[in-house]
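Need the bound structure for zinc ion, inputs here:
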Amino acid sequence: MTDSPIDPTLLERLAEVSVRTGLNLQPGQELVLTAPVTALPLVRAITRAAYAAGASLVTPLLTDSEVTLARFETAGDETFDLAPGWLYSGMAEAFDRGAARMAIVGEDPMLLSEQDPAKVSRVGKATSTAYKPALEKISTFEINWTICAWPGESWAARMFPDLPTGDAQAKLADAIFSASRVNTDDPVAAWDEHNATLRARTRWLNEQRFSALHFRSPGTDLTVGLADDHEWHGGASEAQNGVVCNPNIPTEEVFTTPHAQRVDGTVCSTKPLSHQGSLIDGIEVTFKDGRIVEAKADKGGDILRELIATDEGAARLGEVALVPHSSPISQSGLLFYNTLFDENAACHIALGQCYSKCFLDGASLTAEQIAEKGGNSSLIHVDWMIGGAETDIDGITADGTRVPVFRAGEWA
Amino acid sequence: MTDSPIDPTLLERLAEVSVRTGLNLQPGQELVLTAPVTALPLVRAITRAAYAAGASLVTPLLTDSEVTLARFETAGDETFDLAPGWLYSGMAEAFDRGAARMAIVGEDPMLLSEQDPAKVSRVGKATSTAYKPALEKISTFEINWTICAWPGESWAARMFPDLPTGDAQAKLADAIFSASRVNTDDPVAAWDEHNATLRARTRWLNEQRFSALHFRSPGTDLTVGLADDHEWHGGASEAQNGVVCNPNIPTEEVFTTPHAQRVDGTVCSTKPLSHQGSLIDGIEVTFKDGRIVEAKADKGGDILRELIATDEGAARLGEVALVPHSSPISQSGLLFYNTLFDENAACHIALGQCYSKCFLDGASLTAEQIAEKGGNSSLIHVDWMIGGAETDIDGITADGTRVPVFRAGEWA
Ligand SMILES: [Zn+2]
Ligand SMILES: [Zn+2]
Ligand SMILES: [Zn+2]
Ligand SMILES: [Zn+2]
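Answer from helper R.:
Posting the output first, comments after.
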């Protein structure tokens, strides 16, 4: 008999929080759930929680890392521009009919690190292209959606390479449960309180109507223009179907849309970025008129430059987000190699697609109107961390007034 | 460390036979693969074999029995007429674009036996309705497809309830490997020889052009009229995309389309039928002018009658198949509770949908033309076993001549 290293009570609570607080799944609503097959215990708990919350139908789509690897290791070179478009168009159909969407992450973040980066990039681009119609319904918040995490064994082994498997998984599970605020007696109340704090921050930022943010820290001197009629969001968010959901479990950030043509200066990453199974570390990038004009990295520079070359929008920003250095995930001192966690440990920016949600009355805007206001568009959306203990941020208003926003990594 | 009760070499061979002989997967062809999540080792082996055979993309769709049970145990009563139509329409799109289809069976055949039969039947009907457009591309052989089996633990436990889990699984694995002809040094050669034998039988039957078959055995006196321009098939079959595949691994049957209006007499089942998780045993049914006018069973009579009431075609025959009593699966003496195996142990008939393939030039016929010739149409296709050691069959030609086909369970 083996004891699971994952506390079953906390796992049930994570399922409950993901369904109730994360999705806010409505009675009669269908649920499309993607997950790595190793996350089956969480998939089952979420399925039970979803039906208990009144789900009409729960359909898990499970992926397997060995199946993924078999492709890279065995398939013919001419096949790497293919993606299962039929599956993504099926998902888009489900969203059109009102289904909610949940994704469980938990794969080995370095799964593809030994594979040919050109093939990895071709598959990434084919997948993004095929998935775009479905993803747009998520990024424009047509439906309620959420992402949560499963403490996968291989993921845990990357984070804690010196620990035995069970201990590593137990440590990652604890970190996930704690960051997801389910290690308290009343997780739903904890989330309500947390959402109120984030709401206070976004309300203040929205009142300021800054036209730009100025980031300063060692190696960084970056002015990020904000899009016209930008709106700050964080925590709970109302989807176009009227459902208030928490799209990320956990979340610590408040974020908005930068102006794709008004970003200037140089910025250094403060944490490594795990992208499609490879690590990019020590990024230094220079922007001019919103576009990256120079990009290097101590590690993974080629992958960074391939990423930036994906399309026109991949060289511009689609998100800027503020997270204090005292955030619990930052204080854990852990590097998760996973954006869902690492982006909540530091201020960050994202290359690529913006969220139309982050505009005043964003749901009613056309793609052209969003572009006119400075919203970026791209096949990619890749977050990377630029904040730390020494980060200072000023808000700059239209008339040039400077307002302290962050000092030494904390809200000013 | 645990040794798997399943021989890895034979598992690799089963994967190879399923891809090469079962599907005859073509270089550049996509593969859609459905399987229970417990079959992951076979899914992975098939994925590797498929990419080695030149597959452009392999997409497994995995289902989990606990997720299925959670629905029956927790979902609201109003939700049981729903099916993931978006997923099935995605699959139909994949088939339209030329994907091949493989299904791995291996679930607990009694999974739903404790659930409310009305809910089970509603889900079955909703699924059949939603799946119909995709299934038609399979049943009309637009594409190459195949079904093979994984020795699932819970399935093995049903078959060998007195054995420890590992032993039961090992025994089921042996039975599957042997029936699938992969326990020989050259499985592909064994399949070629087996296909030649089945081809000789179908050639002889097609030359006879019988207008009916007359079955006699204890409790059975049944005349099964054959459809106009019916054609016998068995073993390898050419799909409309030109690919010769073996749709069932294993297979022992030769089969054709009965005339939906010309079936008369009484017939008893010779083996229990496992349908949607319930067992129907001791079936006795009387046909008049092709339609069931009386149906009873020693066990599961209600389920049988619900099944027959699915739609008009569910009370008529869509298949008649001949299997000698000496077939290896019959000689194993095992009851698998799974049609893929049990239908290959005995002569059988199927209620419901016919195969358009089983007509001369069937691919060019419209649904109306098939119906005119006597082909049946229905949401269901359920095989049940009527043959045994004492089965005699006569072929009856248009002028009334009788030709012995089976005597005492064997080819005459
Ligand atoms: Zn972010
Ligand atoms: Zn982001
Ligand atoms: Zn059959
Ligand atoms: Zn059949």
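Comments: The mean pLDDT of chain B is 95. The first strand of chain B starts at residue 30 and ends at 36.
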